[in-house]
Design a protein that fits this description.
Elements lengths: L3 E2 L6 H25 L3 H27 L3 E2 L5 E2 L1 H24 L3 H25 L1 E2 L2 E5 L1 H24 L3 H24 L1 E5 L11 H25 L22
Antiparallel strand pairs: 1-2, 3-4, 5-6
Helix pairs in contact: 1-2, 1-5, 1-6, 1-7, 2-3, 2-4, 2-7, 3-4, 4-5, 4-6, 5-6
């Protein structure tokens, strides 16, 4: 088995990846709050923005953390189409969870289904991203630890959606995003604990792109998108009713809109 290093640059990649997760979570939650207070096309657009932000934040968190991943004496490359697919899956499946909550008629059921869907979306993104690894060897997983990472992802997603249904102020959004960022990071590193690599030395050139050729520029671009969009959303005025005056964003259990 090859010796793995999950923090080749020390605390730099874990701290940056956590910052990306928190930023994506804050933006996603803020957009979700706006969407649940809106109606019609405005609600749809805010939820689409939330899906993009959460999916992008989770993906960026994963691959910034992966910049610090290495196996001693082994080159690692990434399959470009599969890596991009993992980003699209993250946004799409998280979006399904958000729209389930945004348009569900029963709060508890919508939260359960939305949390499960978004949680499995987070896990799918992670393991698709891991499937994009190209190295001279075989990647193995501990099924029990994989299952634990999926459970953490579901709990994180459900907690985030539950917060979106009840929080009112930007301060509450900030606190919730810090918690969700920690949960998403925990899911990632728990998933990485499930990994072991058996090395097969070879002189054959690996296909794909190196992390610095592909992952780093894309992560920087998406991270910049998150920060700039977060600033725009934070500074944009609220439309319609104020958050403080909004008593509830979804009807009570069993009551139609």
């Amino acid at each position: 088995m090859g010796h793995m290093d999950h923090a080749a640059f020390g605390w730099l990649t874990p701290v940056l990846s956590y910052a990306m997760a928190c930023t994506g979570s804050a933006l996603g939650l803020r957009c979700t709050v706006r969407g649940l207070d809106a109606t019609g096309r405005s609600r749809r657009n805010w939820l689409l923005a939330a899906s993009s932000a959460l999916g992008t934040g989770i993906w960026t968190m994963h691959f910034v953390a992966m910049l610090g991943f290495g196996v001693t004496g082994m080159e690692i490359r990434y399959d470009v189409p599969l890596t991009i697919l993992s980003l699209l899956v993250a946004m799409a499946v998280v979006g399904v969870g958000l729209f389930t909550v945004g348009y569900g008629r029963h709060r508890r059921r919508a939260l359960a289904v939305g949390g499960l869907t978004a949680g499995f979306g987070i896990a799918s993104m992670h393991y698709l991203g891991m499937a994009a690894l190209r190295l001279h060897g075989q990647v193995h997983y501990d099924p029990a630890v994989v299952a634990l990472s999926v459970v953490i992802g579901v709990i994180a997603a459900t907690a985030a959606l539950g917060a979106a249904l009840s929080i009112r102020s930007p301060v509450a959004v900030a606190v919730a995003s810090l918690v969700m960022g920690g949960a998403v990071s925990s899911m990632h590193y728990t998933g990485m604990m499930a990994v072991s690599v058996s090395v097969t030395p070879s002189a054959v050139a690996l296909p794909g792109a190196t992390a610095m050729q592909f992952i780093f520029p894309l992560a920087v671009g998406l991270g910049s998108y998150l920060f700039l969009t977060a600033a725009f959303v934070a500074l944009s005025p609220m439309s319609g009713r104020s958050e403080a005056s909004t008593p509830s964003r979804l009807p009570a259990e069993g009551v139609a809109r």
